[in-house]
Amino acid sequence: MIEARHLQKTFGDHHVLNDISCTFEAGKTNLIIGQSGSGKTVLMKSLVGLHDIDSGEIEYDGRLFSSMTIKDKRLIRHEIGMLFQGGALFDSMNVRDNIMFPLNMLTEQTIEEKMERVDFCLQRVNLENAHLLMPSELSGGMTKRVAIARAIALNPNYLFCDEPNSGLDPRTAGLIDELIQEITQEYHITTIINTHDMNSVLNIGDTISFIYQGKLWWKGTKEEVMTTDNQELNDFVFSMELTKRLKNSRV
Amino acid sequence: MKLIRGIGLYMQMLRRFFSNPGQKRIFRNRMINELYILGVQSLPIILIISAFIGGVSVIQTSFNVDGPLTPKIMVGFVTRQIIILEFAPTMLCLILAGKVGSLIASEIGTMKVTEQVDALELMGINSAAYLMLPKILAAMFFFPVLIVLGAGVSLISGYFVVAFSQIIPLQDYVEGLMLDFRPFTLTYMMVKTIVFAFLITTISGFFGYNTRGGALEVGQASTKAVVNSSIAIIVINLVLTQLMLV
Ligand SMILES: Nc1ncnc2c1ncn2[C@@H]1O[C@H](COP(=O)(O)OP(=O)(O)OP(=O)(O)O)[C@@H](O)[C@H]1O
Ligand SMILES: [Mg+2]
Questions:
Q1: Interface pTM (ipTM) of the complex?
Q2: What is the whole-number distance in angstroms between the Cα of residue B139 and the centre of ligand 1?
Q3: So where are chain B's domains?
Q4: Which residues of A touch B213 (CB under 8 A)?
């Protein structure tokens, strides 16, 4: 479980996060939704300490992360896997070495154990034969999947996914959503997902936090999203004709 | 004001470059890799430039000491002094600032804007030291090798130019090369080179590391890296020369 309390973050005079308090539960897919530029990435990077917050507290299962030294933060980060918005695979390494990298850096496993783990992770994301491809040879969806494989290589307790399925076709997007949900439940991970994809929201939104104007505007489940009368959330969720029709048909 | 602030930030960054990079074995592998990329791959351009500059130096010097009163052995002497004191350490390092500096700044800059640096940090890795320390040490170790080779090739190419053109007797050139040789000049050359290697890599790393935005900014960072490390070389060259030779 990750708990954020009264987070504030500004860039110059741009107030991006304004008093955000939020709990993300273990074994659930916790979604953060909001318009492009609403501060989802900033929130996620603040939670893992890649951005220094101006004030507020962040707790990882009772451990007060926000006031730790960088050394202690690094130890917590060993338990974190993160899928970055652009994949952030290391250009100079092939797929296998990308996934093996955290194992090399942070464990004392033998080469056989590491190879086995790489095979397992790649299998998990349905990319059995991609070991030797370079990042430049991957399609967008494959990049995301390799990035997920790398994020889960160390069996993380916390998984952060920044727009795991943006720019993918609906089928691949759905597969990735399901994959994330599966590993979350299987290993009881605390998973946080940034998205503005309504399919994801309706498919895997165990909890949903809606960020609007730097604030946590609304919080609920995927069922509640469909029936909410929050004006801004409705404008955001039902901006698409299709979802609008879906809602009307339900009413 | 901006300059002072920049130098302050640079100093802070230096502290991060020189912190614990983690796993020794991986560090060693990266170091070997960087020796190859920054060092060995710079060999061709260094050798080509040195060969031509060596030849040109000989011709120009002999053109300048063409009076009946100046002994011909001055040609070899002056050429040697120019090459060891200034051409090899300073000019070749300026060339390396262009080649290696832009390479480092664009590599680190690209990793920064594509969140690869964040990914490293997120794995709990000290990204600044992990990425930069092998480059800094590799350059400080291998640039002296490049510079010595460069100086050697210059003097040898001077020899061939003399041999073919017969502008002065070959014997005089060789005697001039040996004339009043002081080993301290080699020390001076080495010290300069090692300091310049440090400046080039750290300044380029600094600009690479501070890249924000996208591909355009990576290009700008790379330009800034080359310009600023060149200026630093020229300024520190004056300081070192004042300190060591006067
Ligand atoms: N390093 C930074 N420096 C200054 N401003 C920033 C920085 N990072 C983000 N911002 C600003 O913070 C705001 C939120 O950005 P953020 O990347 O979190 O949006 P987002 O919700 O992730 O959008 P998207 O869905 O497009 O990824 C933006 O207005 C952006 O300009
Ligand atoms: Mg984002």
A1: 0.89
A2: 37
A3: 24-245
A4: none
* A125 is a domain residue: no
Index of the ligand 1 atom closest to the CA of residue A196: 25
Judge whether A105 lies within some domain. Answer: no
Q: What is the pLDDT along chain A (251 residues), one digit of tens a residue?
A: 999 999 999 999 999 999 999 999 999 999 999 988 899 999 999 999 999 999 999 999 999 999 999 889 999 999 999 999 989 999 999 999 999 999 998 888 999 999 999 999 999 888 888 999 999 999 988 999 999 999 999 999 999 999 998 877 888 888 889 989 999 999 999 999 999 888 888 889 999 999 999 999 999 998 888 888 888 888 887 776 566 666 677 65
DSSP string covering chain A? -EEEEEEEEEETTEEEEEEEEEEE-TTSEEEEE--TTSSHHHHHHHHTTSS--SEEEEEETTEEGGGS-HHHHHHHHTTEEEE-TT----TTS-HHHHHHHHHHHH----HHHHHHHHHHHHHHTT-TT-TT--GGGS-HHHHHHHHHHHHHTT--SEEEEESTTTTS-HHHHHHHHHHHHHHHHHHT-EEEEEE--HHHHHHH-SEEEEEETTEEEEEE-HHHHHH---HHHHHHHTTSHHHHHHHHHH-
A38 Cβ below 6 A of ligand 1: yes
Judging contacts by C-beta atoms under 8 Å, the chain B residues touching residue A91 are 110-111, 114, 116
Q: Please state, rounded to an integer, the average pLDDT across all residues of chain B.
A: 93
Query: Which chain B residues have any C-beta within 8 angstroms of a chain A C-beta?
Result: 22-23, 26, 110-111, 114-116, 118-119, 121-126
Measured between beta carbons, the chain A residues lying within 8 angstroms of B122 are 48, 50, 77, 80, 82
A140 found inside a domain = no
Q: Can you give the residue range of the structural domain that contains A25?
A: 1-79+157-166+187-251
pLDDT value of position A244: 65
- What pTM, to 2 d.p., does this model score? 0.90
CATH number (domain holding residue A202): 3.40.50.300
* Within-domain flag for A191: yes
Please state the domain count of chain A. Answer: 1
